[in-house]
Every structure is written in structure tokens, then in C-alpha cells.
Design goal:
Blueprint: H1 4-7, H2 11-19, H3 23-36, E1 53-60, E2 66-73, H4 77-80, H5 89-99, H6 106-119, H7 133-146
Antiparallel strand pairs: 1-2
Helix pairs in contact: 6-7
Amino acid sequence: MAAADDVALDPLSASWLEDGAGGNAKRNVELLREYTSRAEPSATHRVDLRLLRSPVQTLGDERGRVRALRVVRTRIERLLRDPADGGDAGGTEGWLREGVPALVTWAGWAAIDAHERSAGPAKGRPRVKLVRVGDLARIANAGAAAGQ
């Protein structure tokens, strides 16, 4: 199940979806929108899709079985503010690093992506995924330092 409010796109996301998103992203949004129109299932179990939310607590029963997750709405407004509109793009990275010391920046992500793609052709694949956290951090930090 998905709530219509969770699937509604802000103007920036709608513009990206229309002009820059790939087919997978467009199809995912179509599927989520379709889920919002479905009737409530009669099954004993269901999965609710809660977008832009983060789990903060696992709720269990006396036997230790998970019964629910407590979630909070994710606050991303600071990340979306455009510097031209008074946002502080330079300060956002510092603010994020306060809570996430191992933060991977866009430059770091781009370095990981380039590394994975460059390793693929030798194995006849589009990319070879890095799976060890240490390897990901090493490549991301080197890329961020190089300003990729």
C-alpha cells in the first residue's frame, strides 16, 4: 500500500522526472501511483510503502518478533535549497558530516561509479560492484579529494 501524499512530487522532482529521469524512475513512480488507487487488501499481512521516512525504532512482542517499525518523516529541505535562493550549499556538507562522519559526497559517489564502470569491460559486464565498505570509502575519499 502507498499513501497518495507520499507519492506526490514536489515541482523540482516532477521536472526531473519529466526531463532527466530514466525509464526505470518513471516506471517506479507510475507503479507507486497505481498502488495508491488499490483497494485495501484483506490479507493478514501487508507492506505499507512510506516514502521519505526513516525507521527509528523496532517494535516487537513478548516473543521478540517484529510487529512494527516506528518511523519519522525525513527532513530534507536543507539539502534542496538552491544557493541562488538563499540556500547554503557550502554549509550543507559540514552540517551533514556532523551526524555522518563517513559521508559520501556527490564527488565520492561519482568516483565509485566511475571505478565500478571501468572494472566492468574486462569481465564482460557493465560494471563490477564494490561490496566492501572499506573499498567504497577508499574510492569515495580519493575521488572527493581529487574533486571528481
